[in-house]
């Protein structure tokens, strides 16, 4: 009888442990979800700017002469000049070029990670414009060198929680290796689409003139944006 009771209590003990683990996991997941959406829950630009405008965005470079190439825009399929699906824009900037905020907003992330486990470092900056729209900058220096990573991090001029104005300098770009660029995208409600609709008239005119200075017949987005 004693042995039976002991086994029963042992099984109950195991069940309690399992329940505790499940509860902790649930709380942890809830905390993670809350953390991920906390910036959205608390977002309020106040009187800094009107966040309900759609056509607000400008280019991220200061001068067109800072751009040394344009090879990749937005595409929904492989039917495009660059030959692969790509949900963003590549800005190919010269070394130490100024990088501007394309729109006003709050910095909700400023961090780095390895690119697909290849030890090619990427430094990211995310700017929340309103409750649904986030601008994502990915500084892709194409470098495996930790010193290049450290240098690019030192060239970032904003931190999480900062409010920025449109046109404000948020970083300098490190051209560490051939092909280095900034991958730029606009994310609305978790979805990426052709960024044309977010550009102001002046911003769209500028980026198209920049693109056509390298490729006179290219479009910003494929399928076509106009």
Describe the structure.
The protein has 226 residues and is of the alpha+beta class. It is 28% helix and 25% strand. The protein has two domains: 1-42; 64-222, Glucose Permease (Domain IIA) (Distorted Sandwich), CATH 2.70.70.10. It has three helices and twelve strands, in the order H-E-E-E-E-E-E-E-H-E-E-E-E-H-E. Strands 1, 3, 5, 6, 7, 8, 10 and 11 form an eight-stranded antiparallel beta sheet that branches. It has a two-stranded parallel sheet with strand order 2-12.
What profile does the largest beta sheet have?
A: 8 strands, antiparallel
Please write the CATH class name of the largest domain: Mainly Beta
Runs with pLDDT <50, length 5+?
14-23
How would you classify the helix and strand content by structural class? alpha+beta
| Helical proportion, percent range | 25-40%
Spatial extent as radius of gyration: 23 Å
* The CATH H-level homologous superfamily of the largest domain: Glucose Permease (Domain IIA)
Morphology call:
globular
* Nearest-integer average pLDDT: 85
Total helices: the number is 3
Distance between the termini: 83 Å
Query: What fraction of residues sit in β-strands?
Result: 25-35%
CATH architecture of the largest domain: Distorted Sandwich
């Amino acid at each position: 009888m004693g042995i039976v009771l002991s086994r029963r209590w042992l099984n109950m003990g195991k069940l309690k442990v399992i329940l505790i683990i499940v509860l902790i996991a649930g709380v942890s997941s809830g905390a993670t979800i809350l953390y991920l959406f906390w910036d959205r829950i608390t977002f309020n630009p106040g009187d800094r700017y009107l966040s309900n405008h759609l056509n607000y965005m400008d280019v991220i470079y200061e001068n067109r002469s800072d751009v040394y190439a344009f090879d990749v825009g937005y595409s929904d399929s492989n039917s495009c000049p660059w030959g692969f699906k790509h949900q963003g824009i590549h800005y190919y900037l010269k070394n130490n070029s100024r990088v501007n905020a394309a729109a006003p907003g709050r910095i909700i992330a400023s961090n780095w990670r390895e690119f697909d486990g290849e030890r090619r470092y990427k430094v990211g900056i995310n700017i929340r414009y309103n409750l649904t729209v986030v601008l994502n900058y990915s500084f892709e220096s194409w470098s495996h060198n930790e010193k290049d990573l450290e240098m690019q991090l030192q060239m970032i001029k904003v931190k999480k929680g900062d409010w920025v104005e449109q046109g404000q300098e948020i970083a300098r770009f490190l051209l560490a290796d051939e092909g280095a660029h900034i991958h730029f995208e606009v994310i609305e409600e978790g979805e990426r689409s052709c960024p044309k609709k977010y550009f102001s008239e002046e911003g769209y005119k500028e980026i198209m003139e920049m693109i056509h200075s390298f490729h006179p017949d290219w479009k910003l987005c494929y399928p076509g944006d106009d």
